[in-house]
Amino acid sequence: MAIRLVAALIVLLLAFSQADLARFRDFAWFRAWLAQLRFAEGGGRVAIAIALPVIVCALLQAALRDWAFGLAGVIFAVLLLAWCFGPREPEADIDAVLTAADAPGREAAAQGLRDDANAEPLPFTAPALVEAAVLAGLRRRFGVLFWFFLLGPAGALLYRLAQVAANDGGDLDLRTRDAARRFAAAMDWLPAHLMVLAMALVSDFEAVLHAWRAWHAQPGRSPWELEPGFLAAVARSGVDADIEAGDGGAVADVSDPLQELADARRLLVRVLVVWLAVAALIVLAGWIT
Known about the structure:
This protein is mainly α. It has 12 helices and no strands.
C-alpha cells in the first residue's frame, strides 16, 4: 500500500503540474484486440478481452515487486497509473470551460467533459455541467485510484479497459456493448460511494445525505443497484449547498453554470485530499501494527 500511495502522489503531482500526459494514453491496441474477438459476444467477449491484458499486467507487477529494492515496482506502478488516468485530467477540461473567451467557446469546451464522444451534446446548464464534471472525476481519476489502491497496477488497468470497452469500444454488437456498460457501472459503484462519503465530509453533510436517500427512494431504485447515477445527484446537491453558503466568495446563484462548475472543481480537489489522507492513515496504521 505504501508503494501505491507513493506512486499515486507522483502521478498526481505530474497531473497538477500541467504535464502533457494525455498524448501517451492511447488504447487503440485494446480496441483492435476487442474487434478481433468476433467468435464471442456479450459478457464472454468482454471478459476475454479484459482478462488477458490484466493477467499479463499482474504477472509483471509480481515479477517486478522485489527488483532493485522495490524501485522497479514503483516505476511500473507510476507508469501504469499515469497511463490509466484520463484520457485527460478533469481539471484541464473544467479550466478550459472557465477560461474560454466567449459563450460559443465555453459551450465547445464543455463537450470535453463527456465520457463518450458519440453521446448527445452536453447542454450548457449548471446541473449538466456539475454532473459531467463529477462523473469525469470518477471515471478519469477516482475509479482508477480506488482499484489501483485495492489491486495495484493490474486494478488500474482493469478499470481503464472496462471504461474503454463501455464508452469507446468501437463497432461492437449490442449484447457486448450492453455487457461492457454493465461491467463498467459495477466497477464504478464502490468508488462512487466513497466519493459520496468524502463529499459529505467536505461539503454540506445533510444535503449530501438527503440527495443520496432521495435518489435511492425513487421507484425501482435499490441501495444495492450497481448504477453510479446517485453520484451526480449528490454532487449537484452538495455544490448548490456550498454556493448558497457562500463558498468561493461569490454571490449565491445556483443557476450560474460557471459558478457551479468552479465549485464542482473545488469539490473534486477536496474529495481527492480526503482520499489521500485516508490512504496515508492506512499506510501509517500498517507500519504501527
